[in-house]
Amino acid sequence: MAQPIDVRGGEALATPSTHPLDNAVWAALAGPHARFAERHGRAARYPDYIYDFAALSDPADPVAWADLRTLVGPGTVVRIKPVDEVPSGWDVVGGGLGVQLVGTALQAEPAPEAVRLGPEDVPEILDLVARTRPGPFLKRTVELGTYLGIRRRGRLIAMAGERIRPPGWTEISAVCTDPEHRGRGLGTRLVRAVAAGIRARGDIPFLHAAAGNTQAIRLYESIGFTLRRRSPILLVRSPRTPHETQAL
Prior knowledge:
The protein contains six helices and eleven strands. The protein has helices spanning 24-29, 62-72, 122-132, 186-200, 214-222, 242-246, and strands at 38-40, 43-45, 54-56, 77-80, 91-102, 115-117, 147-152, 155-162, 169-177, 204-210, 226-237. The strands form two sheets. The protein has an eight-stranded mixed sheet. A three-stranded antiparallel sheet has the order 1-2-3.
């Protein structure tokens, strides 16, 4: 696993395990994205029409898992990271390995051809997402931050935007380009443009990718991102009591 790093001031420094990126979804929901949080005790989640992740204040804390079960209800499947083990009664029903990269040397600059995307653009956004599959994007994900797009002849062909916001950091997400327009650097221009907005408010850009998406990871590294850590992403089902199981 890569050593956690902090890139403030341009230097890579070892940081303690309490770094906000170590539990980024929780840090966002307990901080800058608290207005979106559905929360019970030591567990929280984004509404399922915005972003399909839940989080625990401490993934090793049984109380946090009990709070998550109360929050989501019995027999509910939720997506969560970073979690290495789940308590008895919780079932792992899917998942994979993800990587986290930080913009240590990313050149941030505006893209004059990029336009701001908003709720009225969601049908176009969802159509592009369906064709390119950049990762989860729901009907109101666009509310999480600034999303920029590039159009050709009035058609949305590329986009990128902001998703989770731990204190001092902002995730770049939904980076995608229509297959017919790839190889022209549109995604890179949008990543740099989104990063410019992030840095303008004093945050540092970072992003996540599937560990198996080596092509995307190489591209991100080539434009100034550095691998910070690898961590599992799990789909887990909350426990049912024997009475609830018998009632099915």
